[in-house]
Amino acid sequence: DIQMTQSPSTLSASVGDRVTITCRASQSISNWLAWYQQKPGKAPKLLIYKASSLQSGVPSRFSGSGSGTEFTLTISSLQPDDFAIYYCQQYSNYSTFGGGTKVEIK
Amino acid sequence: EVQLLESGGGLVQPGGSLRLSCAASGFTFSTFAMSWVRQAPGKGLEWVSAISGSGISTYYADSVRGRFTVSRDNSKNTLYLQMNSLRAEDTAVYHCAKDPDGDLHFDCWGQGTLVTVSS
């Protein structure tokens, strides 16, 4: 099984900050990586797929990069609506999610 | 607008069974693979099962293989998850999710239905 490790688990930031979340795979997954945002009591929302492709309708302040085993999600200027939990997901070999990163207000 | 609406969750005793449904609308259901993803209370996401658009191919996580069965009725635009031999660790919100490319990433999710396994 491929394990996905996200860091940090919690991130405190202010509106306007540049935020970066890292996701590491236990083995190479090429670019088969997605990022999701989840708010309390809501379904996850797809942000990024194939490591760097922005899902339709997602603001351009979200971007993804990486390949192989190391990936990042960047929010260029944090907005009030962005405080949430973010999950990475590999889909190279079936599917595994990372443990999540909570982005909270500083 | 794509909509996915799960139902069928509830309280069940260990060893019991439950069947979940996911009613889909707003897209050509039979064209897309679908998955079930669960989330234990306060925990992260776990992929559970997937099924191809035709229903011919099915896939399972090791944690549920042999106990859960995924199926679909394309005439009713509905996805199902039959869950048998339920365990306490199966307690979770179960989401159905649409797979746009058949590769196990998901562009639309339902709100989920809560399954609680407890005596």
Question: Which tags fit this structure?
Answer:
heterodimer; A: 106 residues; mainly beta; seven-stranded mixed β-sheet; four-stranded antiparallel β-sheet; 0% helix; B: 119 residues; globular
Number of distinct helices of chain B: 0
In terms of DSSP E residues, the strand content of chain B is over 45%
**Approximate helicity band of chain A:** under 10%
Oligomer: heterodimer
Main interface: chain pair and counts: A-B, 21 and 20 residues
Provide a count of the helices of chain A: 0
Structural class of chain A: mainly beta
The backbone outline of chain B, from C-alpha atoms, is globular
Q: Which value, in Å, is the CA radius of gyration of chain A?
A: 13 Å
Elements of chain B, N to C (H/E): EEEEEEEEEEE
Helix content bin of chain B? under 10%
Q: What proportion of the residues of chain A form beta strands (DSSP E)?
A: over 45%
Structural class of chain B: mainly beta
Overall morphology of chain A: globular
End-to-end Cα distance of chain A: 36 Å
- Overall pLDDT metric of chain A: 97
C-alpha end-to-end distance of chain B: 40 Å
Biggest sheet statistics of chain B: 7 strands, mixed
Number of strands of chain B: 11
Mean pLDDT of chain B: 97
What does this structure look like?
- The complex is a heterodimer of chains A (106) and B (119).
- With 106 residues, chain A is mainly beta.
- Chain A contains no helices and eleven strands.
- Chain A has strands at residues 4-7, 10-13, 19-25, 33-38, 45-49, 53-54, 62-67, 70-75, 85-90, 96-97, 101-105.
- In chain A, strands 2, 4, 5, 6, 9, 10 and 11 form a seven-stranded mixed sheet that branches. A four-stranded antiparallel sheet of chain A has the order 1-3-8-7, with no helix packed on it.
- In chain A, a hairpin with a 2-residue loop joins strand 7 and strand 8.
- The model of chain A has no long low-confidence stretch (mean pLDDT 97).
- With 119 residues, chain B is mainly β.
- Helices cover 0% and strands 50% of the residues of chain B.
- In chain B, strands 2, 4, 5, 6, 9, 10 and 11 form a seven-stranded mixed sheet that branches.
- The radius of gyration of chain B is 13 Å and the shape is globular.
- The chains are: A mainly beta (106), B mainly beta (119).
- Chain A binds chain B through residues 1, 32, 34, 36, 42-46, 49, 55, 87, 89, 91, 94-100, and chain B through 35, 44-47, 50, 59, 61-62, 95, 103-112.
